[in-house]
Design brief:
The chain has about 725 residues and is of the alpha+beta class. About 10% of the residues lie in helices and about 30% in strands.
C-alpha cells in the first residue's frame, strides 16, 4: 500500500509539472523562463505540414524610423495579448487572430495628456493577473506602468493614478528629468507586481532599483536598491561613499525569473553608468552585473553572484536566468539558476544559496589603462563548467578571410593598431576590440531548456566591436556661436551613439539628413522625449537644444548668433572626462564582421556533461549561401523547445522562421516571414489545436519594418 501511495504521489507531481508547461500565460512560457512546452501535437514527423493559421496586422509600423516588434505574446483562456510597434496593447482570439480590443497609450482619453513626453521604446512582453473578480494586464509604455482590464481593454482606474503609475516616482530621489522606462514585463508573486527598468547608459542614468507594487492599488510595496545606500549590503564595494547619490544604472532591464515555491525572485542586472568609463565609480560596483536573489514578498536580500567586476565593456546580463533542475554526480538532481551571458559563459548556481555548482575561478586579467582615474579589477570570474557556447578569443588568424586581399590587409592593419586578443582588455584611447561583442554571446531573447534531454539551447552572436575612448573637452574658450556650441554639445552627448561623422554606429542610425525629416521644433521635442534606444535628454536646456539643432539640422540662419554658455563643472559625476567615438562594429570595408564566420550560432549545451552537444550556424547571407558557405548572422530573439522533439526560432535578418530537431540540430522546416522575426515565439493550445506564433516586426540590422503577428498550426 505504501509503494502504491509513493507511485501515486510521483504521478501526481509529474502531471502537475507537465500541466505547468501546457500554457504560455507569462513571457518565456513559465516563471522559471524555460521556454519549453509539453504540447507535442506538432512533432518531428509532421512539422512539414505546418501552415499559416492566421495573420494579424497592427497597422502602425514606422518604416521611416525602423520600428520593431520584440514582444513575446502571452495567451490566457484562448486570448492572446501583445503589443504593436507604437506600443499599443491589443487582445486577439488566439485561434483566429480576430481582434477583440486595442488600448492606445497615446490617446488622451487613456491618461497620456502630455504626448510630448511620450517615449517610444521597445516592448518585450506584458503581465497578466487575476483573482476571483478581476483580470488585469500590466505593461509599460513610455514612462508609465499601465493597468488594463483584460476583458475590455480599458484602464482600470482603481490602480495607481487612474490606472497608471509614473515610473519616475518612488525611486528615492528626483529623477523627473531622467530616462526611465521598462522594456521587459514585470512578474507576479501572489498579489505583487515586481518590475525592473531601462535607464540611460550614459552618465545621466537614473538608478535601476527594483520595485514591487500592490496589484490592486498600485501602492509601492518594496524597493531594492541595486546601488546600495549607507548601511546596506554592498555599499562598501563603492570606494566613493557618495556614489549612490550620483551613479545610475545597475538596472534589471532583462526581466525576472521566479521560484514561487521558495518565494525567491532572481534578477539579472546591467552595468553601472557610464558603461565604458568607471573612474567616478571605483570599486567592484555591487549590485551591477549581478544575479540577485531576493525575497519576493519583501524585497529583502538573499544572495548575489557578480559575473563581472567593475564592468567597462557593457557586459550587462542580457536575459533572465532559467531555473532548471540538472543531474550531477551520478544523477543527483539539483535545482539551479542557469545564467547565460553576453560573452558566452553559463553560470550555474545553487538556487537557495547562490553557491557555484561547479568551480568558478577568479582569473587574472589585464588592468593597465590609459584613461586617467580609471581603476580596473585585477581578476574576473570564469566558470569551469559547462564549456562556453561562443568563441571568446579573437586572434590575428581569426580575421575574416572571405574578403579581397586589399580589404583583408586593411582589416589586419586596424586589428593590430587596436588593443586585442583578450576579452577583458581595457577600453582605450587607441581603441579596443570587444569580443564576442556588445551584443555578443546570449542576448535578450533568452535560452530554452529541455528537461527531458537536459539540453540547454542558446543562440549567440559572435561579432567584434571596436570601442575607442576619447577625451571630452567641455570647457568653452571665449565667445561661442550656436554652431560651435552645437558641435561641443554633440561631442558631449551624441557622438557615442551617432559617431564623429554623424553616420551612426552600432544599432544607432545616421543623422546626416535629419534636416529632411525634422523641423527645429520636432528636433527639440525629440531631444526631450527620446525614442526607442535614444533616451530623453532633459538635462539639456532650451538654448542648448537650439544650438544642437543649429549643428545637426544645419540651420545656417542661427549658426553665427552668439551663444551664452552656462558654466560646466568639469569632471563631475555627470560630465565625465571621457566618452567614446561610437558604438562601432569591427568590420571589413564591405561591411562584414571582421572575424571569420560563424557570426551567429544556435547551440545545444549538455548540462550533464558540460559539452556542446551540437552547434550550427544560424541565419544565412545570400551572397555566401550561393557559394555554399554557411556564415550565420547576427540574431535577436530566442528559441522555444517542445516535447514534440522540436526547437523553433526566428531571430535572423533573412526573415526565416525555422524548426529544428532538438536532438541533433537538423533543419526540418522553414518559412519566409513578411518581416524578420526579432522576437521569441510562443506556443499554445486552443480547443485541442497547437499553435506557434511569432512577431514579424523587422527593423534591426537593416531589415525592413513589419506590423504582423503570424500563427502556424497543422492543416
Amino acid at each position: 500500500m505504501k509503494d502504491l501511495l509513493v507511485i501515486f504521489i510521483f504521478l501526481s507531481l509529474f502531471a502537475c509539472a507537465k500541466k505547468e508547461h501546457n500554457t504560455w500565460e507569462v513571457t518565456g512560457g513559465s516563471k522559471e523562463n524555460l521556454r519549453y512546452s509539453t504540447i507535442n501535437q506538432i512533432n518531428t514527423s509532421n512539422v512539414q505540414r505546418l501552415k499559416v493559421a492566421w495573420v494579424y496586422h497592427t497597422k502602425d509600423a514606422d518604416t521611416l524610423n525602423n520600428s520593431q516588434i520584440q514582444c513575446n505574446p502571452i495567451i490566457v483562456d484562448g486570448i492572446l495579448y501583445a503589443t504593436s510597434p507604437q506600443q499599443k496593447l491589443f487582445a486577439l482570439d488566439a485561434s483566429t487572430g480576430q481582434e477583440k480590443w486595442i488600448f492606445d497609450p497615446k490617446n488622451p482619453d487613456n491618461g497620456m495628456s502630455d504626448k510630448t513626453r511620450f517615449i517610444l521604446n521597445n516592448n518585450r512582453g506584458v503581465t497578466y493577473w487575476k483573482d476571483e473578480k478581476e483580470q488585469r494586464i500590466f505593461y509599460v509604455a513610455s514612462s508609465s506602468l499601465f493597468c488594463i482590464n483584460a476583458l475590455t481593454g480599458k484602464l482600470d482606474e482603481g490602480f495607481g493614478h487612474l490606472g497608471q503609475i509614473d515610473l519616475h516616482e518612488g525611486l528615492g530621489k528626483d529623477v523627473g528629468d531622467l530616462y526611465v522606462t521598462a522594456t521587459s514585463p514585470g512578474i507576479i508573486y501572489k498579489d505583487l507586481l515586481i518590475l525592473g527598468s531601462r535607464v540611460s547608459e550614459g552618465s545621466d542614468a537614473a538608478p535601476g532599483h527594483i520595485r514591487a507594487y500592490d496589484v490592486r492599488t498600485g501602492e509601492q510595496a518594496w524597493i531594492f536598491h541595486t546601488i546600495p545606500r549607507p548601511g546596506e549590503i554592498g555599499y562598501e564595494t563603492w570606494e566613493d561613499s557618495t556614489a549612490y547619490r550620483h551613479i545610475g544604472g545597475a538596472n534589471s532591464w532583462a526581466g525576472f525569473s521566479l521560484d514561487e515555491e521558495r518565494g525567491l525572485l532572481f534578477a539579472p542586472t546591467g552595468s553601472a553608468s557610464f558603461d565604458f568609463y568607471g573612474g567616478k565609480r571605483k570599486g567592484d560596483n555591487l549590485f551591477a552585473n549581478c544575479i540577485l536573489a531576493l525575497d519576493a514578498a519583501t524585497g529583502n536580500y538573499k544572495w548575489h553572484f557578480q559575473t563581472v567586476h567593475h564592468d567597462i565593456w557593457d557586459k550587462d546580463i542580457p536575459t533572465a536566468p532559467s531555473l532548471i533542475t540538472i543531474k550531477i554526480n551520478g544523477n543527483k538532481e539539483v535545482d539551479v539558476v542557469a545564467q547565460p551571458t553576453k560573452y558566452g559563459n553559463i553560470f550555474l548556481l545553487d538556487r537557495e544559496t547562490g553557491k557555484p555548482i561547479y568551480p568558478i575561478e577568479e582569473i587574472p586579467v589585464p588592468f593597465d589603462t590609459d584613461l586617467a582615474g580609471e581603476q580596473l579589477s585585477k581578476t574576473q570570474p570564469v566558470p569551469s563548467f559547462p564549456k562556453p557556447f561562443a568563441r571568446q578569443d579573437f586572434l590575428e588568424e581569426d580575421l575574416n578571410h572571405l574578403v579581397p586581399d586589399s580589404s583583408y590587409e586593411d582589416l589586419k592593419k586596424r586589428y593590430l593598431s587596436s588593443r586585442h586578443g583578450n576579452m577583458y582588455n581595457p577600453i582605450s584611447l587607441q581603441g579596443t576590440i570587444v569580443f564576442p561583442g556588445l551584443d555578443g554571446g546570449a542576448e535578450w531573447g533568452g535560452p530554452a531548456f529541455d528537461p527531458e534531454s537536459q539540453l540547454f539551447y542558446v543562440n549567440a552572436n559572435e561579432v567584434p566591436w571596436l570601442i575607442q575612448a576619447r577625451e571630452v573637452d567641455m570647457e568653452t574658450k571665449g565667445t561661442e556661436n550656436y554652431l560651435k556650441a552645437g558641435k561641443r554639445l554633440y561631442n558631449q552627448y551624441c557622438i557615442s551613439c551617432h559617431g564623429p561623422d554623424r553616420k551612426g554606429s552600432g544599432n544607432n542610425p545616421s543623422i546626416l539628413k535629419s534636416n529632411e525629416k525634422l523641423s527645429q521644433d520636432a528636433f527639440t521635442e525629440l531631444i526631450h522625449t527620446g525614442r526607442r534606444m535614444m533616451p530623453a535628454f532633459n538635462m539639456i536646456s532650451k538654448e542648448e537644444s537650439i544650438a544642437l539643432a543649429s549643428f545637426i539640422l544645419d540651420l545656417k540662419s542661427i549658426q553665427q548668433k552668439e551663444f551664452e554658455a552656462e558654466p560646466i563643472e568639469v569632471n563631475s559625476f555627470l560630465n565625465l572626462p571621457y566618452n567614446i567615438t561610437g558604438y562601432n562594429r569591427f568590420q571589413t570595408k564591405e561591411g562584414l564582421p571582421g572575424i571569420s564566420p560563424p557570426w551567429g550560432t544556435l547551440n545545444a549545451v549538455n548540462m550533464v556533461t558540460g559539452e556542446i552537444e551540437w552547434r550550427i550556424p544560424l541565419g544565412e547571407i545570400d551572397a555566401f549561401k550561393e557559394k555554399g558557405i554557411k556564415t550565420g548572422s547576427e540574431n535577436y530573439g530566442g528559441p522555444v523547445v517542445t516535447a514534440g522533439g522540436l526547437l523553433f526560432i526566428a531571430a535572423t535578418p533573412d526573415r526565416k522562421f525555422r524548426a529544428y530537431n532538438k536532438a541533433n540540430g537538423k533543419l526540418l522546416w522553414e518559412y519566409e516571414l513578411p518581416a524578420a522575426g526579432f522576437a521569441t515565439p510562443s506556443i499554445y493550445e486552443v480547443n485541442g489545436r497547437q499553435f506557434i506564433v511569432i512577431a514579424c516586426g523587422g527593423g534591426k540590422l537593416g531589415a525592413k519594418s513589419g506590423d504582423s503577428y503570424m500563427a502556424f498550426a497543422l492543416e
